[in-house]
Amino acid sequence: MRLQDKVAVVTGGANGIGKATVRALAAEGAAVVIADFDRQRSAQLVEELGGAGKTVVYEFCDLTDSGSVKQMIEATIARFGRVDILANIAGGSGLSPFYKTPAGQAQKWTEDIPEAEWDNTIAINLTAPFYTLKHALPYMKKAGRGTIVNFSSVGADHGFADSSFAYAAYAAAKAGIIGFTHQLARELGPFGITANCVSPGAVTSERMQERWEKDPRWREESDRTLRDVVPLRRRASTDEVAACVVFLASADASYVSGITLDVNGGRYMR
Length: 270
What we know:
This protein has one domain (about 5-205, about 235-265): 3-Layer(aba) Sandwich (Rossmann fold). It has a seven-stranded parallel sheet with strand order 3-2-1-4-5-6-9, sandwiched between helices. It is α/β, with parallel strands linked by helices and about 270 residues long. The two termini are about 30 Å apart. Helix 8 crosses helix 9 (about 215-230). Helices cover about 50% and strands about 15% of the residues. The model has no long low-confidence stretch (mean pLDDT about 95).
């Protein structure tokens, strides 16, 4: 197993790509900490993987609160003594209750984004990874090793056709993650720490499935766009994205740092 005896923290590990990553890291032998505010789904995942003999624990965390993040990292250190892998996966756009209101559903263009929703989107996608790194890096530096995997999005490279669900803020935050990762790689290399970024395109996740069930017309439009712009003509599975995190966290990528690994079926090519 490629990650035997490693300790990994996965933010947003209760759902979607985060959940798939928790499973993939545990399957490769890592002890995994789920950092999430979703208590119910986190507990279900802990029970599932614990029953299979994996070491997976849950730490409640509000990733937009530096104090909560600090408590999560300190709890991880207290339990395991170190953090070897930090996967900053939590994120998204249109996640707040505002987008369930008539005004939120009507919001489309950049000038229509409420300032609070801009701030919320930046907070979960860009500020939250800063908080986890702020509190985890001293331990990684002391150990003289570590692997950071941040998450961007194909939207950072080509934007979106409109700004529904505060996509303008989302694209800005995810572009910021790429620059942040470059800086981290430059800054942390002398400490034996690598920093890389995964940038997915369309992914079939639980959240996407829920949106499709509520809005079949939106799914139809999404499927048509997929056929027009993605050479592979399909979405990624969450497992396919999680496999990229495992690679970047493993010794197979020990000399890889500062890259953005595009996982988009050919939709965007650098």
